[in-house]
Design goal:
Blueprint: E1 7-12, H1 16-31, E2 35-36, E3 45-50, H2 55-74, E4 79-83, H3 84-90, H4 92-97, E5 103-105, H5 113-121, E6 126-128, E7 148-152, E8 154-155, H6 166-170, E9 174-175, H7 178-190, E10 195-199, H8 223-230, E11 238-242, H9 251-259, E12 266-268, H10 276-281, H11 288-301, E13 306-313, H12 320-333, E14 337-342, H13 360-383, E15 389-397, E16 404-408, E17 414-418, H14 421-424, E18 428-436, E19 440-445
Parallel strand pairs: 1-2, 1-3, 3-4, 4-5, 5-6, 7-10, 10-11, 12-13, 13-14, 17-19
Antiparallel strand pairs: 8-9, 15-16, 15-18, 16-17, 18-19
Helix pairs in contact: 8-9, 9-11, 12-13
The structure holds S-adenosyl-L-homocysteine, iron/sulfur cluster and FE3-S4 cluster.
Iron/sulfur cluster binds near residues 159 and 166.
C-alpha cells in the first residue's frame, strides 16, 4: 500500500454546486489528515472539480490535466483526481485520454471521496460514475468563507432543456429533508456564519420528490415551506436561494420572501431567451410574457428587489429578430446582473445535433451586443444606490486595496469601503454609497458596532 499523500490542491470550475461539492471534498481530505497546498505544483494530490456546461469549460480541464499528467511521470506518487461534471460525462474514456489519472468520480460521489481514495491508495485506478442515491452527508465541509455558506437543498434536475448537460451529469432530483437542512443551518449559526445560500439547479422543484402532501393536494415540502421552516435559525441573518426556474416560480414564494425579513430581496431567475419560439425549442416551458409577469409581481411586493438572470445567445435557428427580442427583454427589465453565454453544442443534448447551428461569428457578435447592453443597464441599476444607506455584510478584505473591506448588500451588489477586516468581518454595517460602477459600489461606513 502506498502511503497517503500529504498535501492536496483543488481547482474548481463551474457553478456554486461545484464550489459547494469542492468544500465537502476538501472536508473529506482534511479529515484524512491532508493539508491544503495553494500551489498545485506543491501538492501530492490534485483534484479538478470540473464543469461541462460549455465546451470552453471542458477544454480548460484538459489543458490543466495535461500539465499535471506530465508532472506525474516524474513524480509517480502524485495522485490525480477528476471529479464533477466532465468526469460524469466522460467516465472511462477520460482514462483512455489521460492514463495517468487515478480517480474519475461524478458529482453524486463527492461524499464518497474517502472510500474511493482508499481504493486508489490500494493501487487501483477507479471510475465512480454510476448514478446513485446521494447519502446524507456526515462529513464536514471545509468552507472557504467563515461568513457566508452554501447549503444544498436539492441535487439533480428533472428538466430537459434541449441545450443542457446538467440532467445527464447530475441525475434526477433528490431533495434533502427539511430537518437535515435545518440541522446544517443551526450548526452554521452556532459557528458564526451570517448568511446562507440555499442551492439547487432548479430550486423551485424542491420537495416534489419528498413524501407528503397538504389537504388541498399541494406538495407539503415546497421551497416556500422550507423558507418558513428555516427562517428562525439563530445567528443566520440573511438567506438567499438559487437557481429559480420561471416555469415553477410562484406568487406564494414571492409573498414569503416579502414577509420573511431574513430572505434577501435578490432573485436569480434565468430566462435564457426573450423569444417565445426559441424558448419553445429550448423546452423551457414558459413565455417571455410569463417571465415579465413574474418580475412585475416581484416588484409589486418588493419594488427595490435585485433581479439577475442567465441568457444564451445564438441558440440553433435564432434569427436576428429573435435575438432582438432578447435585447428587448433586457432593455425592459433592467437586470442588476446578467450572465451571458454563446450557445455551445454539448454531447448528448438534443440541440447539439440540430442542423440549424449558427456560425461562431454570429454568436460572438450577438454576445458582444448583449454584453454591451447588460453593462449599460447594470450601471443604470447601480445608479439607484447613490447616496443611499445600504446594509453591507462584510466578507473579506479587498485584495486589490487592502485598506478596504468588501461585502454585499441584500441585493447582492458588491460594496467596498475603508475599514479593518479584523474588526469588521461578519458584521452588518450601514454604509452610505458614494460611488457607483456597473457591478460594484464604494461607500462610507456610518456606524460600526463591534
Ligand atoms: N439550472 C439553471 C442553470 C444551469 S446552467 C437554469 O435552469 O437556468 C447555468 C447556465 O449556463 C444556464 O442558465 C445557461 O444560461 C448556461 N448554459 C447551459 N447550457 C449551455 C450551453 N449548452 N451553451 C451555452 N450556455 C449554456
Ligand atoms: Fe439545465 Fe434546464 Fe435543468 Fe437548468 S432547468 S439545469 S438549464 S436542464
Ligand atoms: Fe457546470 Fe456541472 Fe455546474 S456542468 S454549471 S459544474 S452542474
Amino acid at each position: 500500500m502506498t502511503s497517503p499523500a500529504r498535501r492536496y490542491h483543488i481547482t474548481t470550475f463551474g457553478c456554486q454546486m461545484n464550489k459547494a461539492d469542492s468544500e465537502r471534498m476538501a472536508g473529506v481530505l482534511e479529515g484524512m489528515g491532508l493539508q491544503e497546498a495553494e500551489n498545485p505544483d506543491d501538492a501530492d494530490l490534485i483534484l479538478y472539480n470540473t464543469c461541462s456546461i460549455r465546451d470552453n469549460a471542458e477544454q480548460k480541464v484538459y489543458s490543466y490535466l495535461g500539465r499535471q499528467a506530465k508532472r506525474k511521470q516524474e513524480q509517480p506518487d502524485l495522485t490525480l483526481v477528476v471529479a464533477g461534471c466532465v468526469a460524469q460525462q466522460e467516465g472511462e474514456s477520460l482514462l483512455r485520454r489521460v492514463p495517468e489519472l487515478d480517480l474519475v468520480m461524478g458529482p453524486q460521489h463527492a461524499n464518497r471521496l474517502g472510500d474511493l481514495l482508499e481504493q486508489v491508495f490500494n493501487g487501483e485506478q477507479v471510475v465512480a460514475t454510476e448514478l446513485i442515491q446521494i447519502v446524507e452527508d456526515i462529513t464536514k465541509p471545509r468552507r472557504d468563507s467563515t461568513v457566508t455558506a452554501w447549503v444544498n437543498v436539492i441535487y439533480g434536475c428533472n428538466e430537459r432543456c434541449t441545450y443542457c448537460v446538467v440532467p445527464g451529469v447530475r441525475g434526477v432530483e433528490q431533495s434533502r429533508t427539511p430537518a437535515a437542512i435545518r440541522a446544517e443551518m443551526v450548526e452554521l449559526g452556532q459557528q458564526g456564519y451570517k448568511e446562507v445560500t440555499l442551492l439547487g439547479q432548479n430550486i423551485d422543484a424542491y420537495g416534489r420528490d419528498l413524501p407528503g402532501s397538504t389537504a388541498d393536494g399541494r406538495h407539503q415540502h415546497t421551497l416556500t415551506d422550507l423558507l418558513y421552516t428555516i427562517h428562525d435559525v439563530p445567528g443566520i441573518q440573511r438567506i438567499r436561494f438559487a437557481t429559480s426556474h420561471p416555469r415553477y416560480f410562484t406568487e406564494r414564494l414571492i409573498r414569503a420572501c416579502a414577509e420573511l425579513q431574513k430572505v434577501c430581496e435578490h432573485f436569480h431567475i434565468p430566462f435564457q431567451s426573450g423569444d417565445n419560439e426559441i424558448l419553445k425549442s429550448m423546452a423551457r416551458g414558459y413565455t417571455h410574457e410569463k417571465y415579465r409577469r413574474i418580475i412585475a409581481k416581484i416588484r409589486e411586493y418588493m419594488p427595490d428587489a435585485a433581479i439577475s438572470a442567465d441568457a444564451i445567445v445564438g441558440f440553433p435557428g435564432e434569427t436576428e429578430a429573435q435575438f432582438e427580442n432578447t435585447l428587448k427583454l433586457v432593455e425592459d427589465i433592467g437586470f442588476d446582473l446578467l450572465n451571458t453565454a454563446a450557445y455551445s453544442p454539448r454531447p448528448g443534448t438534443p440541440a447539439a445535433v440540430w442542423q440549424n447551428q449558427l456560425s461562431e461569428e454570429v454568436k460572438r457578435d450577438r454576445l458582444q451586443r448583449l454584453n454591451h447592453l447588460v453593462s449599460l443597464k447594470a450601471a443604470e441599476r447601480s445608479g439607484r444606490y447613490l447616496g443611499r444607506i445600504e446594509e453591507v455584510l462584510v466578507e473579506d478584505q479587498n485584495h486589490k486595496e487592502p485598506s478596504q473591506v468588501m461585502g454585499r448588500t441584500r441585493g447582492n451588489r458588491l460594496v467596498f469601503f475603508t475599514g479593518k477586516i479584523a474588526e469588521l468581518k461578519g458584521q452588518l454595517v450601514p454604509v452610505q454609497i458614494t460611488d457607483v460602477r456597473a457591478f460594484s459600489l464604494t461607500g462610507q461606513p456610518l456606524l460600526v458596532s463591534c
